[in-house]
Design brief:
Blueprint: E1 2-6, H1 10-23, E2 27-32, H2 36-46, E3 50-52, H3 55-62, E4 66-69, H4 73-83, E5 89-92, H5 99-112, E6 116-119, H6 126-137, E7 145-151, H7 161-175, E8 179-188, E9 197-205, E10 210-216, E11 223-230, E12 233-238, E13 247-252, E14 257-260, H8 262-265, H9 271-274, H10 277-289, H11 302-312, E15 317-319
Parallel strand pairs: 1-2, 1-4, 2-3, 4-5, 5-6, 7-10
Antiparallel strand pairs: 7-11, 8-9, 8-15, 9-10, 11-12, 12-13, 13-14
Helix pairs in contact: 1-10, 4-5, 7-11
The structure holds nicotinamide-adenine-dinucleotide.
Nicotinamide-adenine-dinucleotide binds at residues 6-12, 32-35, 38, 55, 70-73, 75-76, 79, 92-93, 121, 162.
Amino acid sequence: MKISIVGCGNWANYTHMPCILKYGKVNIVSCADINAENARDMHEKYNVPLYFADYNEMLEQTNPDAVICLVSENATAKVASDILKHCPVMLEKPPGNTVEETKMIVEASEKSGKNNMVAFNRRFAPVYLRLKEMIAESGYGEIKYINYKFHRIKRHDDNFETTAIHAVDTVKFLAGDDFRRVEIKYQEMPYLGKNVANYYIFFEFVNGIHATAEILVSTGELSEGCEIHTGESIYRASIPMGGNGGGIEYKNASGSHIFISKEEICAYEEHYISQGFYNEHKHFYECLANGMNPGNGAETAIQSVAVCHALKNRESFVGF
Ligand SMILES: NC(=O)c1ccc[n+]([C@@H]2O[C@H](COP(=O)([O-])OP(=O)(O)OC[C@H]3O[C@@H](n4cnc5c(N)ncnc54)[C@H](O)[C@@H]3O)[C@@H](O)[C@H]2O)c1
């Protein structure tokens, strides 16, 4: 399979290239970046045969079977929609800054018949896949409440909602249903920078599950995980991140106690494997090779984008 990269910035180099190289069964034929220097650096560092400043030219001239789209957030919807005129695309989150932008990708996919997949890596994180398996064995319909903790260090970016979308989407992934309503409270911290705030979110799902997410941007520890209550059982799980967390703990009211270490769940420490990025690449290529839709398209991100757009605008309620 011939693939191309569009967007040769930090995340492409730090996370996606290692995934592609580890997978090994695809050929990178070209790369493109509006900043030609970044495209040339990727060409030199990874021996990518051809590089371009214009991704449309790249598509015309090198005709890839699929593209990995890793451009800046503001460009993603337009670039991914253009790529879909030619071939399938896996694109970084968020697929759009707004619901309208996200729908642009859905429509481009429908029009060309080419699949798109949003790279929400938590949907492929080994810890969460194992957690979902464990809960499914004990009756998935039993979940009552999910609490998601998303703690960061010095994340004073004024568009932090484009990162917070991970917490929102993961809560939805764990609950396995659509939001019915979402309420948000903000703790503004203007002394840390423009638009810096902690978000406290309450979710009610169509299936009756309730959830909360505490998204704290400036804490003493980089960590992320969840607590899931299923009647008289509790599951605690966290993604290995910055030397913290990893693993799953289960307890129930009858005294049962199980701990599964991060090593038992995933033998690799590298962030791109233990946090799910490698799995999402593998899934994307294997589905395409087998003529299957990889799922996880932009349509599955519309509600999460709507919530993140509300975060940006400091709205306190999102109804669906
Ligand atoms: N999943 C995660 O945990 C995670 C973490 C970090 C970043 N990301 C996402 O990855 C994407 C890239 O982030 P980054 O940190 O690498 O940013 P970056 O700014 O380092 O890289 C983005 C690159 O896209 C290029 N670009 C912008 N517009 C373009 C266009 N129209 N055509 C071609 N190239 C264009 C820029 O020149 C730049 O080189 C973003 O969507 C970001 O949200 C995801």
